[in-house]
Amino acid sequence: MGTWRRKSSPLWITDARPALRSADLRTVAMVLGLWVGFAIAIHYAGSPSIYAAVDHFNRAINPLINPEPDPPPDHDALVVTADHNTELTSVTTLSPRGFRPVIAGGAQDALRRVHAEGHAWKMVVVDAGLPGSAALMRTLRAELPAATLVEVQGRVGAQAVSRVLMERLSTPPPRR
């Protein structure tokens, strides 16, 4: 057997524990990040849970970013119709534009809601096919002079009702 000789160059000297390089640290950080992400995915298994977590985070951060809450919309819209399609079309057209639609099933229900306290009616949508709609429109013009009154033909379809509402919303109210 031969004898072991030590070389004089430092390149031949090796350590049993190699030093960690920056590439090794990035790999470790990436693996740890994947584990944390996997743990979060397991904990919040469904998308409703993820959305709830995001909403919770937004509620915690929003007061820091936007300290003054937005005022609630004061635009109440009364929708007077017995037709379910007209009701749905009116609600889906008015709601995204800041209105809070309130549904009345007939002329008497509409008048009861108009006389009730606590509503500032900005718009009233009346289905022309409703019995007594002409008399209701005359009464509403007298009792709500500042409100925008819209008469729609409920049985003609959702696109026609939506078009009439959008045209009325895009034009400024007439001066009285």
What would the keywords be for this entry?
four-stranded parallel β-sheet, 176 residues, 48% helix, Rossmann fold, 2 domains, 6 helices
- Return the structural class: alpha/beta
CATH homologous superfamily of the largest domain? Response regulator
Distance between the termini: 116 Å
Order of helix and strand elements from N to C terminus: HHEHEHEHEH
- The stretches of 5 or more residues where confidence is low (pLDDT under 50) are none
Give the helix proportion (percent range). 40-55%
Q: What's the CATH class of the largest domain, please?
A: Alpha Beta
CATH architecture descriptor name of the largest domain: 3-Layer(aba) Sandwich
Can you tell me the overall shape? Answer: elongated
Q: Please count the beta strands (DSSP E, at least 2 residues each).
A: 4
Provide a count of the helices: 6
Number of domains: 2
What's the alpha carbon Rg, rounded to whole Å?
Answer: 34 Å
* Widest sheet, order of strands: 2-1-3-4
Tell me about the biggest sheet? Answer: 4 strands, parallel
Residues in β-strands, percent: 5-15%
The averaged pLDDT comes out at 77
CATH topology of the largest domain: Rossmann fold
Quickly describe the structure.
The protein has six helices and four strands, in the order ααβαβαβαβα.
Description:
The protein is an alpha/beta fold and 176 residues long. The chain folds into two domains: 22-65; 75-170, Response regulator (Rossmann fold). Helices cover 48% and strands 14% of the residues. The protein is built from six helices and four strands. The chain has helices at 22-43, 47-65, 84-94, 107-115, 133-143, 158-170; strands spanning 75-80, 99-104, 121-127, 148-152. It has a four-stranded parallel sheet, sandwiched between helices. α5 links the parallel β3 and β4. α3 packs parallel to α6 and α4 runs parallel beside α5 (133-143). The longest helix is centred in the N-terminal third of the chain and has 22 residues, at 22-43. It is elongated and about 85 Å long. The N and C termini lie far apart (116 Å). The model has no long low-confidence stretch (mean pLDDT 77).
